[in-house]
Amino acid sequence: MAPARLPGWPAPDDHEPDSAYRAALRYLLDLSHRPYPRDAHRAHKVARMRHLLQLLGNPQRGFASILVAGTKGKGSTTAMLAAILQATGRRVGRFTSPHLVSFRERIWADGRFVAASELTAYTHQLAPRITELEQRWPALGPVTTFEAALALACGHFAARGCDLAVVEVGIGGTHDATNALEPAASLITAISEDHLDVLGPTLADIATAKAGILRAGRSALSAPQPAPAEAVLTARARALGTPLAWVGREWQWEPVGTPAGRAPFAVYGPAIRYERLEVPLLGRHQRDNATLAVAGAHAVAGDVLPSAAVAAGLRAVEWPGRAQLMPTAPPLLLDGAHNAASAAALRETLDECFPEVPRVLLLACSADKDASGIVNALATGAVGGVATATAHERALPPAALAAVMRDAGLSTTEAASVAEAWRAAAALAGRDGLVVATGSLFLVGELLGQLTVPQDGDAATSQRSTILKAANRPRDGRLAQTL
After folding, report:
1. How far apart are CA 416 and CA 200, in angstroms?
2. For residues 388 and 414, is the Cβ–Cβ distance under 8 A?
3. pLDDT, position 137
4. What letters, b where the CB count within 10 A reaches 16 and e where it falls short, cover 34-43?
5. Helix, strand, or coil here: 65?
6. Where in 189-256 does DSSP place strands (E)?
7. Average pLDDT, integer, range 105-130
8. Strand order of the sheet with strand 272-277?
């Protein structure tokens, strides 16, 4: 038995024996624990990032960048786009956040995560530059953990000789540190209500922030958007003279089999079609994300994007915690949905891919998230729930979350820890049920770091396939027996 992680995925940071790495990690994480007047310095984030990169010798100039912004699906889209481009033979970097079990997950290049020793060495080089920046330009404010991670990533991509990097935007776009890069193409995934205190209060305001990553004359692509967001993106692209293509218009997908949320699919765009694609991520929304990734790869590679690379990249992508089915007993589905729109997409996936399987919700939420919206999207169809809290400082207390779940009509128990919550949810699900753990990527990360499952490669893959098949037939008491 071993921690529940994919082959090649970094071990949890708290399992890391290297004391130098642990010290470097503490330094990086403590950067964001300093007094930080967020509102006063939000407008300085991009300038601060540019100064930091300049002090490092501008490593970002050694490779082309693609920015991926949005509210939902930007991490998945980033992972899929990087996988497709790598399958073409390019040396590709990938920057994402937050991480699930290891800080090293944020920085991936040429097929592997940054090593603990590399991250430690880079941090030793970076720390003096951070001190220098904050002493020379104090008005720009203190460097954050996110900004330091982006600087480390750019240095690593340059050191690894990457041709290009796919970079997930943090919050918003206009004032996000990633906007210090000059993208060759910009992608915007589905926009919904999140981070309203920073970007809102309206969808149009949020879309305006996301549109800040568009560049004059350079390709831009967008997922389908609500009308207010679509109007903002369209107007901004027109003002910049930016060619903007849309999933659902110029680029579309269609299922090749049922259910559409996990069947093979085809993607087609202007004068091109990619047949019988597969991606190991469940849900129609992930097919939207895959289509956006294919369109983004096509914008960068043009007519030299081979069909084989598209198929191989999507098939090989690994992106845990997004409708990820774990071969536990009972089966556990992990999903990082942390707003109402993401929860609604998860509900659609559950209804389509697990129509006859009773669900038990295992929920945790950050206090600044829309707990009511998440719960109301998922409560119908669930047979019970367990409310818990992660170790994160912003975690909503279990009692407060349980009250929201009960108000939605869901029979709910409380658990003080994630481990206790998993045991309680598994007992409620019994032999025939499915535990759905969601509401927070921090919850997903804690579960991945704590669970033990068989790690015997083909057997685990076969078991996952068996669970999926069982979940799509009428309930007959045999689901647990397959495990």
Report:
1. 33
2. yes
3. 95
4. eeeeeeebbe
5. strand
6. 219-222, 244-246, 252-255
7. 97
8. 252-255, 265-269, 272-277
CA dist 48 and 143 (Å) reads 7
Question: What pLDDT, on the 0 to 100 scale, is given for residue 459?
Answer: 41
- Kindly give the interhelix angle for 371-378 and 340-353, rounded to the nearest 10 degrees: 10
**Structure confidence by residue, pLDDT tens digits, 273-328:** 999 999 999 999 999 999 999 999 999 998 789 999 999 999 999 899 988 898 89
- Tell whether omega for the bond before 397 is within 30 degrees of 0, i.e. cis: no
CATH superfamily of 2-316: Mur-like, catalytic domain (3.40.1190.10)
Residue with tokens 């970002």: 60
Asked if pLDDT for residue 431 goes beyond 80, the answer is yes
Q: Strand locations in 294-381, DSSP E?
A: 324-326, 332-334, 359-363
Helices marked H in 31-137:
38-41, 45-55, 74-87, 116-136
Q: What is the distance between the alpha carbons of residues 125 and 326, in angstroms, rounded to a whole number? A: 39
Mean model confidence pLDDT for the chain: 90
Contact 295, 221 (CB under 8 A): yes
pLDDT digits (tens, 9 = 90+) for 236-266: 999 999 999 999 999 999 999 999 999 999 9
Q: Which two tokens stand for residue 79?
A: 């992972």
The pLDDT-based confidence of 454 (bands split at 50, 70, 90) is low
Domain residue ranges of the chain, discontinuous segments joined by +:
2-316, 324-482
Q: What is the pTM of this model?
A: 0.89
Could you tell me which of 255, 264, 263, 269 has the C-alpha nearest to residue 299? 269
Kindly give the residue spans of alpha helices, DSSP state H, lying in 411-457: 418-429, 441-450
pLDDT in tens, 351-365: 999 998 999 999 999
* Eight-class DSSP state of 320: T
What is the token pair recorded at 128? 């003096």
Domain 324-482, CATH among 3.90.190.20, 3.40.50.10320, 3.30.750.24, 3.20.20.190: 3.90.190.20
**Secondary structure letter of residue 366 according to DSSP:** B
